[in-house]
Amino acid sequence: MSAYADGTRAVHAGLPAPEPGQPFLPGPVFAAPYHLDPETGPGPNGYGRTDNPTRRALEGAIGELEGGAARVFASGQAAITALLLSTLHSGDTVVLPADGYYTVRAFAEGTLRDLGVTSIAMPTAGPYPSFDGVRLVLLESPANPGLDVCDIRALSAAAHTAGAIVACDNTTATPLGQRPLELGADLVVASGTKALTGHSDVLLGYVATNDDDLLATLTRWRNQTGGIPGAFDSWLAHRSIGTLDLRLARQTANASAVAGLLLSRSDVTGVRWPGLPGDPSYAIASAQMRRIPGVVSFDLGSAERVARFLTASELVFAATSFGGLHTTADRRAQWGDDTAPGFIRFSCGIEDTADLLADVTAALDAA
Ligand SMILES: Cc1ncc(COP(=O)(O)O)c(C=O)c1O
Fold this sequence. Notes:
The protein is α/β, with parallel strands linked by helices. The chain has helices at about 5-10, 55-65, 75-85, 100-115, 150-160, 210-225, 230-240, 245-265, 280-290, 305-310, 355-365; strands at about 70-75, 95, 120, 135-140, 165-170, 185-190, 205-210, 270, 295-300, 315-320, 330, 345. The chain has a seven-stranded mixed β-sheet with strand order 1-7-6-5-4-2-3. It is globular and about 75 Å long. The termini are far apart. The relative contact order is 0.13. Bound molecules: pyridoxal-5'-phosphate. Pyridoxal-5'-phosphate binds next to helix 3.
């Protein structure tokens, strides 16, 4: 499938070979134990924590798109903490994005610190610390919610020279937007809750890698700790990936239009979208990303104005996620992000562009 373009790859990712009388995507297999062969014991499916065909099919799809072998987890946080806890040991140092998903930093400053792991915060836009003595460098590009972008290839090379391994959080970009493994990262980690599945109805996470030892470590970790997604969520996620290319295309078109609208308004400041030629992320994003995601950020000046904007809008839902079918906006300071009170992460959905622009214009006028 790797020779095909994105839409074709997304539709066919992880599907079994056609078989007369069988569905394109087999339905979810609900099983805790499976029948065992009384004589030979465990086959491919023995017990649901370690084996499930629906989950394996989803892993096949994500692995095809990322260009590695994937292991899925019950949420993005389950995937990220599996990565951190299975690769880091007492005395190790990890470099984390200073401006990335805040729960990862909180985990590092609590659980990891208590386990004797030192964390160094690195701004995604730089300056970067020395990687000497570092075990793991975790990148997040574009970083959420500020949308800074880092040079994954250059940072991976620098980390490898220092003897560190590199993981990249690909949540915002999705594997159709960016392929960190091809850019030199050892691992991709992501929340599949966002644009990858995109319907705001599933929590999912995954790690992908081409390193057999890391894959074995992560698989063992997941088998022993048990943070798996269920069969129905795995199936929903796989079904949703089929439309990833179409959803991203509309989200990107909407983000481009919304960013342009916001830039034209004197009552909006700090507009960020890596696809804007004047954006600080533009040069690296254009060079390393295959498409720019539908997330825009900006500042409305105060929490009160954000509330008036969201109340006035008919199409923009107040919600703390992104990448979904529906346009959503989140005032990040309410969750503890180090952002201004009026800072909004705005995730463009797949509504018609003209409707979205008209609604945002009317809501800004009313606010
Ligand atoms: C960049 C990033 N990574 C990881 C996560 C965690 O994912 P989940 O909410 O699926 O646990 C999030 C959630 O917002 C995120 O934005």
